[in-house]
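Progress against Task 2.4 (sequence-to-structure conversion) is shown through the following example record, which the project officer requested during the mid-term review.
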Amino acid sequence: MYDLPPDLPRLRTLRTWYAMWVVRIDEAIAAAEQREKEERQGEERRPAPPDWVLELGIGVGAPPTEVHVGGCYAAGKRRRAISREQALAALAEGVRACAHCRPDTDLGVLG
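Structure tokens generated for the chain above:
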């Protein structure tokens, strides 16, 4: 072994140093595994997006603004999950269909 010192005190110092690092590395591995486990559990427990979403207007009693396919990236934060029948009724009442996800096409309604 050419890359290690020949004397016992320095060899023991190196052994202690690397043992300390192995412990730190093992702790980091355990923490990373725990994070991955928690992320996996979160993904498994996350509810599926609704099939249809109604984007609500600002203020109490304001009319809805748009109908979206569930999971549409363009849906605002003020929204509520609705059924297929409610989505069809909203479109029939004149609520605008989202131009990005096109729920009217998925629902079979001609625009």
